[in-house]
Amino acid sequence: MNKYAVIVAGGSGVRMGSTLPKQFLPVCGKPVLWHSLETFLAAAPDMRIILVLPKDHIPTGQEIIGTTSDPARITITTGGETRFHSVKNGLAAIQAPGVVFVHDAVRCLLSTGLIHRCYESTVEKGNAIPAIQPVDTLRIETPDGSQVIDRTKVRIIQTPQTFFSDILQKAFEQPYDVAFTDEASVVEKLGVAIHLVEGEATNIKITRPLDILLAEKILKENLRA
Ligand SMILES: Nc1ccn([C@@H]2O[C@H](COP(=O)(O)OP(=O)(O)OP(=O)(O)O)[C@@H](O)[C@H]2O)c(=O)n1
Ligand SMILES: C[C@](O)(CO)[C@H](O)COP(=O)(O)O
């Protein structure tokens, strides 16, 4: 079956507060984005990657692709106004039916094992959304204050969110809604059931400066293991 990774790197990284968007910042000497590309290239020899980049950073992206182990398997497309629009642009570059992994470029610590788990679960159940359990106590704000909620019923959602291309492309024909914070929310609006798979605690989304330090530490430990 054809395998496509749509790796979205079209954001500006406001919460990181750096001039250079966070996907280009170094972690262990290589750009964040490079680590994500290499893991997808390593996951399957027939994996093709569609990399979604901000318009102004396409030359930087091309340079990074040139330093990967297989630049020929990576094509570039331009990002949009929101993550939804960037994913939609990426999906437009898919030429033939297959399984599609939509992944945040800034979750650069995912393992090939997680990619394989998502693939197998998609083939079996139609889609796969990585999720982990919260470790903190959770409260929801109410008009009177706040109420504790049952954390055993809550999951933290990650990427790669994995689907068959036909359903994903159809879902992304829907008009944009601010409630679309990930692919699962877009596909679910078509009435499709969403299947969670076990995510990884180390599959963090690099968002703030602290996350760069955490990513360095996790990557060094992984390399040692
Ligand atoms: N218009 C956008 C916005 C986000 N993304 C990508 O979606 C992923 C997750 O988004 P997020 O962490 O929110 O990134 P930013 O939007 O860049 O960060 P911020 O919200 O802090 O500005 C990132 O890899 C980001 O580059 C994208 O491709 N296109
Ligand atoms: C897709 C995602 O990473 C799942 O946790 C998340 O929803 C992206 O959110 P952001 O607002 O773009 O950071």
Short description:
By secondary structure, the protein is an alpha/beta fold. It contains 7 helices and 12 strands.
Description of the molecule:
The chain is α/β, with parallel strands linked by helices and 225 residues long. It has one domain: Alpha-Beta Complex (Spore Coat Polysaccharide Biosynthesis Protein SpsA, Chain A), CATH 3.90.550.10. The chain has seven helices and twelve strands. The protein is globular. The protein starts with a strand and ends with a helix. The site of cytidine-5'-triphosphate has 21 residues, from helix 3. It comes from Niastella populi.
Q: Which features characterize this protein?
A:
alpha/beta; globular; 225 residues; binds cytidine-5'-triphosphate; 7 helices; binds ligand LQXTBERG; Spore Coat Polysaccharide Biosynthesis Protein SpsA, Chain A; single chain; eight-stranded mixed sheet; two-stranded antiparallel ribbon
Shape type: globular
How many strands?
Answer: 12
Share of β-strand residues: 15-25%
Radius of gyration from the alpha-carbon trace, in angstroms = 17 Å
CATH class: Alpha Beta
Within the CATH hierarchy, at the fold level, what is the topology? Spore Coat Polysaccharide Biosynthesis Protein SpsA, Chain A
Share of residues in helices: 25-40%
Order of helices and strands: EEEHEHEHEHEEEEEHHEH
SS-based structural class?
alpha/beta
Biggest sheet layout? 8 strands, mixed
- Averaged pLDDT, please? 97
Low-confidence stretches: none
Bound molecules: cytidine-5'-triphosphate, the ligand C[C@](O)(CO)[C@H](O)COP(=O)(O)O
